[in-house]
């Protein structure tokens, strides 16, 4: 059985992948689904991939969604207060605050574009999808990213399943059990790396 890290490195470092060849009119957003039980191994794999790609001359940016949301809260002078008073917050109010400051269009995507907008960046890896659930949903990030990113490939590491079925649209199953609400089952135009060949 082939090493999944080697297989993924082969895809991410391939000139055709980096040049976005063969995508036609598709946006260069890819989903890499993985078993949620492998979270720690995937974190190590992303670190390894980043080091190897940089050594190979591929400028790569890694965006940790959880760390990005924390930075947004800190920049708005909210993080320390939330941490200090967490026990006294109403859970609904806390969730609403997190949802507001993690809003993809208003806050998150502009922050991501700031991080990956450098012309030298040729590939972006997005992590911590599971750590931001339920206040940030993957489908909202994908929908906001689609019009914003066409300059280089983006790979989102997703702890669960990415199913694409005719007639029902795309379905993201976070942790393999939390389905995308039926209201949000459009075709995301994100490509499943599990079935991709450069």
Explain the overall architecture:
The protein is 41% helix and 18% strand. Helix 8 (138-148) links the parallel strand 3 and strand 4. The mean pLDDT is 81. The radius of gyration is 17 Å and the shape is globular. The chain has a single domain, classed as Rossmann fold. The protein is of the alpha/beta class and 198 residues long. Strands 1, 2, 3, 4, 5 and 6 form a 6-stranded mixed β-sheet that branches.
Name the beta content range: 15-25%
CATH class: Alpha Beta
Radius of gyration: 17 Å
Distance between the termini: 20 Å
Helical content class: 40-55%
Pattern of helices and strands: HHEHEHHHHEHEEE
What would CATH call the architecture?
3-Layer(aba) Sandwich
Structural class: alpha/beta
Q: Tell me the major beta sheet.
A: 6 strands, mixed
Question: Strands, helices and their partners?
Answer:
Layout: H1 4-12, H2 15-18, E1 29-34, H3 39-55, E2 60-64, H4 65-75, H5 79-84, H6 91-101, H7 104-116, E3 123-127, H8 138-148, E4 154-165, E5 169-174, E6 191-192
Helix pairs in contact: 1-3, 4-7, 7-8
